[in-house]
Fold this protein.
Amino acid sequence: MSRSIALESVSRLYHQADVLVKAVSDVSLTFEPGEFTTLFGPSGSGKTTLLNLIGGLDVPTSGQVRIGETVMNVLSPSERATFRLNHIGFIFQSYNLIPVLSARENVEFVMQLQGVHSAARRERAMEVLGRVGLAELSDRRPDQMSGGQQQRVAVARAIASEPDIILADEPTANLDSKTAADLLSLMQELNEVRKITFLFSTHDKQVMERARRLVRLRDGKVENDERRS
């Protein structure tokens, strides 16, 4: 089931030494199901914090984050983890792959937690690795792969369980332009055919050019919100 995302007067404050930092400041935004949207802005503008709040990896100091009918910030940590498992895929700039697992096992990991049968997991993992051009490297561990290859495994892991929403933090940062273009095309296809919502945080013009909506952040606030036809 597709779910909308609503941030209602969301702020996230934290202390850095004796300084109060407003990572996100009174942001209200709504993302409809099936959006292909980019958050952009200078470093420190709040892009990653906003994705973490939407994904329930962090909770706001004030305000509400709502996905469908679920208010994320009133859930317990375990309830948020269960919601993420079943509805949200993540692509991190730092990959966050499990070092002791092969590429295929990393891609299977979320499906294993979901209780998907081993044969179905393996078939789906190999299919998705093939789509990102890594089928022949399925048995390699992360330390046996380049940064770009690890990022492609991370993309494969995020899309393998076909979540409602994928949150992608600088997903093309470690990729050459052709690989980035190929992966963006795959994500566009998943967005258009399977109606998966994609929210990107990026500095990459290639990602921004493909987005149908651009939200510019500065100092933790929305500076501009542009929709494209």
About this structure: The beta strands are 5-16, 19-31, 36-40, 62-67, 70-71, 88-91, 165-169, 197-201, 213-218, 221-227. DSSP finds seven helices and ten strands in the chain. The first helix runs from residue 47 to 54. The mean pLDDT is 92.
